[in-house]
Amino acid sequence: MQSSPPTIFVDSLPKGSSVTFKDSTFFTHNGPGATFPSADQVRVKSEAGDHVLDRKNTVIFESLGLVVKFGKEPRVTVVEGQCLWWLRRHLPSVPVPEMYGWTEDGGEVFLYMQLVEAASGSHWEGHELEDIPDPYRQLLHDDPGVVFTHADLHQSNIMVSEGWPCRIVAIIDWHQSGWYPDYWEFYKAEYTNHWESEWVQKYIPMFLNEPRETFLEGINSYAASWGSM
Which of 2, 35, 153, 194 has the fewest C-beta atoms lying within 10 Å of its C-beta? Predict the structure, then answer.
């Protein structure tokens, strides 16, 4: 018998501007008295250039096994922390970093999460709705299913093992995640790269099913209307 999908109850999500998960492995590895780096320590480390590649808002504290992502809303939000917390507990088969906690300081949100030892998946390769003209709106039908999805599956957000066999160890950057039409993830993933790239031609079809042609026409028309093509 197939088990029913998990249900998300908003009231069950951790709330507050400053939350620490004392049952997380951060305290298992660093001791029960361990503390997170302060907001100022994170900022100083970022300004010193000690950040993840071109992501200046993501800082590593390797000795603590910690990554801190910070910034102003909507770029960084507590909602992303809640999403990772929920996924880790209720959908353990989804590879996401463990959420250790978050805080707010000076108008910025700081997400403290697990440092995943991996490489970016990119190494696999060398208007508002009412503003949209009616013909475009008619092409995007209301009958597809609505699903919870990541909404930004670019190679740089898929962390893979450095050794062989290659495996996915974490999917990061969930700040755009939410409830979308079931075709959205496919087209969003395609638009993150050139259509002739190996990512689009080979890898995306491995984990996402191509929606029917009418949706493709609608998405292309919508994208062209605001100049993304």
Answer: 2
Distance spanning both ends of the chain, measured CA to CA: 46
Could you tell me which of 113, 198, 188 has the C-alpha nearest to residue 149?
A: 188
pLDDT for position 186: 81
Torsion of CA 159, 161, 167, 173, to 10 degrees: -10
Residue 5: count of CB within 10 angstroms of its CB: 9
Distance CA 201, CA 197 (A): 6
Task: Report which residue type is found at 223.
Answer: A
pLDDT digits (tens, 9 = 90+) for 33-92: 999 999 999 999 998 876 665 667 899 999 999 999 999 988 899 999 999 999 898 888
* H or E element, residue 219: helix 213-225
Q: Check whether the bond before 92 is cis (ω within 30° of 0).
A: no
Q: b/e for 184-206, b at 16 or more Cβ within 10 A? A: bbbbbbbbbbeeebebbeebbee
Residues in contact with 155: Cβ distance below 8 Å, sequence separation at least 6, in sequence order: 120, 121, 122, 123, 124, 125, 192, 193, 199
